[in-house]
Amino acid sequence: MTDAPLQTFDDALAELDAAGLRRQRRVVEAIDGPRLQIGGCWLLSFCSNDYLGLSQHPALVAAAQAAAGRYGVGAGASPMVSGHSIEHERLEEELAAFVGREQALYFYAGYPANVGIVPALVGRGDAVFSDALNHACLIDGARLSRAEIHAYPHGDLATLDGLLAATTAQRKLVISDAVFSMDGDIAPVPELLALCERHDAYLMVDDAHGFGVIGPEGRGTAAHFGLASPRLIYMATLGKAAGVAGAFVAGDAPVIEWILQRARSYMFATGAPAMVAATLRASLKVIAAEGWRREQLRQRIAQLRAGLAGLPWTLLPSDTAIQPLIVGSNACALQLMAQLQQAGLWVPAIRPPTVPANTARLRIALSAVHTQADVDTLLAALQAAAS
User: Fold this and answer.
1) What pLDDT does residue 3 have?
2) Which residues touch 125 (CB under 8 Å, ≥6 apart)?
3) Among residues of the chain, what percentage have pLDDT more than 90?
4) How far is it, in rounded angstroms, from Cα 122 to Cα 5?
5) I need a labelling partner for 72 at 20 to 30 A (CA). Which of 87, 257, 317, 332 fits?
6) Packing angle between helix 58-71 and helix 274-289, nearest 10 degrees?
């Protein structure tokens, strides 16, 4: 017997530690709005994607409790066997109507949605065109498809135009985040769609960080730009602004039916509980009705950006709830995160490979439940750390 393989893992972990790249989980013991209890201490959180503060909304909690009483807390099997309930069916109908598409398909989570959708749409002999800053699930979906992959520089429409013109692929699919999760900027979706229409391609956008927040009544980035096209395949997650769990893809009925028939992560996975679908139906109603939440979020974004002016770190341009503060080195980002924690704040340090080398940052995530005083507290702590 030899311990060499185990020693190899020890050495690899030590290398992560030396580079400031090992990730640590924290145990959250209780939640009260934007405050999380960790180790018996309450921290003011700027790390959650619960952009509208719906995860604790009374209407959603009541819907979950009622559905658990009626259906229980498990789905029992895959949606193709017995895990597709009347709640799932109605949710898909309501999601399609909410984003103005013919049909929608609900997945139990966002990552498996994209690694299932992309290979369902393209395969060998086809081509995928992917923004360089796309989320890992889009990248992995492209790899699993076995299509030819072309990565284009972030937001570079001219390069994408040339790549689309040059390909001889049978089917062409452009994939892009709608709101980029680490930079907070919004993709040029109208221009991407125009290129796809010109080059006989499909466009799939992942609106994980736009759904519920952007567009009239929070109906997403496509609605924000007023886009409707049979070439547009719209995907969004439901564990962020919607406050619950899961994801969906929406588009023309034949496209969604094809994804249902071919997405392995949908066909062969146990479905989400009916309780989750019922809770999401309640969330859609709140998203549409409580527009004050989006307005309050916009106010907090403006307050934060104004207050960060003059600090020594680079604040990336972003009009969304994601406000990235570029620090530079991994060590400096971790140190700044630790200083904020000592002041009672949880602001995550994001490091490679999630972001490019030498762009380690604090990813400040704002929510409608943050008050003006909460943001003032964060600004004061950052100003103190900079002095």
Assistant:
1) 56
2) 147, 169, 170, 171
3) 95
4) 38
5) 257
6) 160
pLDDT tens-digit map of 243-253: 999 999 999 99
Catalytic residue among 84, 88, 209, 370: 209
Yes or no: say if 320 and 186 are a contact pair by the CB < 8 Å rule.
yes
> Running DSSP on this structure, what letter comes out for residue 247?
E
**For residue 153, pLDDT beyond 50:** yes
pLDDT tens digit string along 210-235?
A: 999 999 999 999 999 999 999 999 99
The pLDDT, as a whole number, for residue 387 is 86
CA distance 238 to 243: 7
* Rg (alpha carbons) of the chain, rounded to whole number: 21
Which residue in 45, 85, 181, 283 is the catalytic one? 181
Helix (H) or strand (E) holding 37: strand 35-38
- What is d(CA 262, CA 254) in angstroms, rounded to the nearest whole number? 12
3-state helix, strand, coil in the chain (%, to 5): 45, 20, 40
Helix axes 372-386, 292-307, angle to 10 degrees: 20
Encoding tokens for residue 174? 């452009």
Give the pLDDT of residue 1: 44
Give percent of the chain above pLDDT 70.
Answer: 98
List, in sequence order, every residue forming a beta bridge with 328; answer none if it has no partner.
360
Q: Is 181 a catalytic residue?
A: yes
- Alpha-helical (H) ranges within 43-127 are 58-71, 86-98, 110-121
pLDDT of residue 104: 98
pTM above 0.85, yes or no: yes
Residue ranges and CATH numbers for the domains of the chain are 23-52+291-386 (3.90.1150.10), 58-289 (3.40.640.10)
Q: Please say if 172 is a catalytic residue.
A: no
Query: Around Cβ 39, how many Cβ atoms within 10 Å?
Result: 9
Plot region of 122 (φ>0 → left; ψ -120 to 50 → alpha; else → beta): beta
- Does pLDDT of 326 surpass 70? yes
Q: Which of 218, 225, 179 is nearest to 323 (CA)?
A: 179
pLDDT level of residue 2 (50, 70, 90 thresholds): low
Rounded Cα–Cα distance for residues 354 and 137 (Å): 12
End-to-end CA distance of the chain: 55
3-state SS class at 109: coil
88: its two tokens? 């799932």
